[in-house]
UniProtKB/TrEMBL annotation:
InterPro entries named among the record's database cross-references: DUF4403
Organism field: Algoriphagus faecimaris
Name of this protein: DUF4403 family protein
UniProt superkingdom: Bacteria
């Protein structure tokens, strides 16, 4: 009987020893001397791409607003064949636009021709000095290929007069004179002088810069009783224009760049300049942003300390654990929190030491907060019973830390959303742009030497309201 009792006691002792050994091994499994390298944060690359499909009415309005009322005004001009006079060509109604193919278009330009013509002073002109009035209408049709160059200037390629669209006849001394050929030559001569491939009709850059100054201007996000500035550094502007199969003028416009963060007292005052144009190969409507925000360890200590410092929680029916003097830092890819602890027991002396806690920063969508996952800790104490006692309550302590170590970032996400909506919205004379279906969530948390880098990802589309 004594042998059986001794064997039972020995068995219990062995089981308890093995359990205690496993606990101690578990505590020692966290090697705080080798945190590993800091993570490499991603490049804050961002992209917006918008396919503009111009309604025909809008395109007609734009073209009609850009072509001047007076097209040609010549005085005392020799038209050939001994005919001289003055000639004024003005627009006479709305210009009609049609697509020939994906790149070329036709313009039907109603004109009114007014002036007077007569014979030159040589020959019969010395006898008949009178001039016949000229007032007629015609609608020439032009073929052209407008092109926006990489430097934002506009040129016309492949200009051709397809049809004069009428006859320019007048009566002089009872003779019918047809000046249609003369007018056609004048139009072609004007085009040769002004619409060559190397001629730049006008520069879009000043207009684009005005719009970009509104969209690309740095903006602020207020958070944690302070503010952070964000600016867009454009690296590439992508552009493609063509007529689609329904003869709609289409522009694919995209911007690639990086979003930079700035301290509140060092925010740039104006937008960074736009680069030259590059080809665009995408017709997708998309907005993908990556905003880099930061939390210093001092800020993190302040918020987490409010939840943990001096706070007590019960780890079992006999022990209350109190944490204090929290300090956070990087631990490789993880976040480390070092805190003093005091464990007060009903049936024994208090034990004290430090907890070196590490965890993976993550986002809790329901709480809209930075939390910690996969928590582990190491007990640092000169009291051996502290290591054993705390280790035995490891799971309960981890659960309590998970509940209390919360850093709210909902305000940051809300402010970022409003900042993006406000900055990327644009009102122009032809259309209003607004961000639609914008969703902003943390892409990741990256411990650095000075704090945690939070990358906020924004995805959405650009809505277009044509006027």
């Amino acid at each position: 009987m004594t042998k059986i009792h001794f064997a039972t006691q020995l068995q219990k002792y062995i089981i308890q020893s093995i359990f205690l050994l496993l606990v101690l091994v578990g505590c020692k499994s966290l090697d705080i001397s080798n945190p590993g390298p800091l993570p490499q944060p991603p490049s804050p690359d961002s992209e917006v791409n918008v396919p503009f499909v111009f309604p025909k009415e809008t395109l007609h309005r734009i073209i009609n607003s850009q072509i001047p009322e007076v097209l040609l005004d010549q005085d005392q001009t020799e038209f050939g064949s001994g005919i001289v006079g003055s000639l004024k060509l003005t627009r006479n109604g709305s210009i009609a636009v049609a697509a020939l193919d994906s790149q070329q278009m036709t313009l039907k330009l109603p004109m009114r021709v007014k002036g007077e013509v007569g014979l030159s002073k040589n020959g019969l002109g010395s006898l008949f000095r009178g001039k016949a009035p000229l007032d007629t209408e015609f609608s020439p049709v032009f073929k052209l290929n407008p092109e926006i160059n990489p430097d934002w200037t506009v040129s016309i390629k492949d200009f051709e007069l397809l049809d004069l669209g009428g006859k320019l006849n007048f009566d002089i001394l009872g003779m019918q004179v047809d000046l249609s050929g003369m007018l056609e030559r004048e139009l072609k001569r004007w085009a040769a002088q002004n619409l060559q491939d190397d001629k730049k009709l006008f520069n879009l850059k000043p207009l684009v810069d005005l719009a970009w100054e509104q969209v690309g201007r740095p903006f602020e996000v207020n958070w944690q009783q302070g503010s952070t500035g964000f600016s867009i550094r454009p690296e590439q502007v992508n552009f493609k224009e063509f007529f689609d199969k329904n003869e709609n003028f289409t522009v694919w416009l995209g911007l690639n760049g990086k979003i930079q963060s700035h301290p509140a007292d060092a925010i740039p005052s104006r937008a960074f300049p736009l680069p030259a144009l590059s080809p665009n190969f995408s017709g997708d409507n998309k907005l993908e942003l990556l905003l880099p925000a930061s939390i210093s360890y001092d800020e993190l200590d302040e918020i987490l300390g409010a939840n943990l410092n001096g706070k007590s929680f019960r780890v079992d029916s006999k022990t209350i654990l109190t944490l204090d003097q929290l300090q956070s830092s990087a631990f490789g890819e993880l976040l480390a929190i070092e805190t003093d602890f005091l464990a007060e027991r009903n049936n024994g002396d208090p034990i004290e030491g430090k907890l070196f806690v590490v965890g993976k920063p993550a986002f809790d969508e329901e709480l809209q907060a930075l939390i910690f996952e996969d928590i582990n800790f190491k007990v640092i104490s000169e009291q051996s019973k502290a290591k054993i006692g705390i280790a035995l309550k490891k799971r309960k302590i981890i659960r309590q830390i998970e509940k209390m170590a919360i850093f709210p970032i909902g305000d940051l996400l809300e402010e970022s959303t409003e900042g993006v909506r406000d900055r990327l919205g644009l009102s122009t004379p032809i259309a209003d742009l607004q961000i639609e279906n914008l969703k902003i969530v943390p892409e990741g948390f990256y411990p650095t030497a000075n704090g945690i880098r939070i990358y906020i990802q924004g995805k959405g589309k650009v809505g277009i309201q044509w006027k």
